[in-house]
Specification:
Blueprint lengths: L1 H19 L11 H6 L10 H10 L14 H9 L1 H13 L10 H10 L6 H21 L5 H12 L26 H17 L8
Helix pairs in contact: 1-5, 4-7, 5-7, 7-8, 7-9
């Protein structure tokens, strides 16, 4: 476990050093008071006025947490280390396992109603953890071996109506039903691993995905 933790730490340290070397364009600031005043309580998504404000502050340069899979010097350095090898072996062990999402609406509602984390939480986190391992393992190996499973996991996550942990939804399951937008650490992690797949793997993923 310590070795796996080490490779994650090394990955983020290298990512930080790599990102610091990139040229950053100045970012405009969002007037939060004006942004909130432009909201519409009848809508769960930003209004057009809010979208216009957001477009002005979105950086022109795309943020990347690390070099893409095409930067072999970067990824070969991680892959050749003891921690990188340990992390890669974990990804290999999970390669034949089926994703445990999307989780049925029935299970989501039961977990919400009963407060039963055992029927939801383990599969919820295993899926995002495996996908992250596959993405980084593919970046290290660069042979396409992990791509089929990455596609399956991404499709499964995208099919979920809510990325929120059901215990964090309200009693009416309004996030699941599309009546409300909310975010928790689980939803953030799903978004993060999908962003990693998109940014790091680049042209290895099909356009349809």
């Amino acid at each position: 476990m310590l070795k796996v933790t080490n490779v994650i730490l090394v990955f983020f340290i290298l990512s930080f050093c790599w990102a610091c070397g990139q040229k950053k364009a100045p970012v405009a600031k969002l007037d939060m008071d004006a942004y909130l005043q432009a909201s519409d309580v009848k809508l769960i998504y930003p209004t057009q006025a809010q979208i216009d404000m957001l477009e002005k502050v979105v950086p022109k340069d795309k943020y990347t947490p690390a070099a893409s899979v095409n930067d072999r010097r970067y990824w070969d350095k991680i892959a050749s280390g003891e921690s990188g090898k340990a992390y890669f072996e974990e990804a290999l062990k999970a390669l034949e396992k089926a994703p445990e999402v999307p989780i049925s609406d029935e299970i989501y509602r039961r977990a919400n109603k009963e407060g039963n984390r055992g029927i939801y939480k383990p599969r919820y986190y295993r899926s995002m953890d495996r996908l992250e391992k596959f993405i980084l393992a593919e970046c290290m190996e660069n042979k396409g071996r992990f791509i089929p499973q990455i596609e399956v996991y991404v499709d499964s996550i995208m099919a979920m109506k809510s990325w929120l942990h059901p215990n964090h939804d309200d009693h009416e399951n309004s996030v699941l039903e599309g009546k409300r937008v909310s975010i928790d650490l689980g939803a953030r992690k799903f978004g993060m691993v999908l962003a990693l797949a998109n940014v790091l793997l680049q042209d290895k993923l099909p356009d349809s995905l």
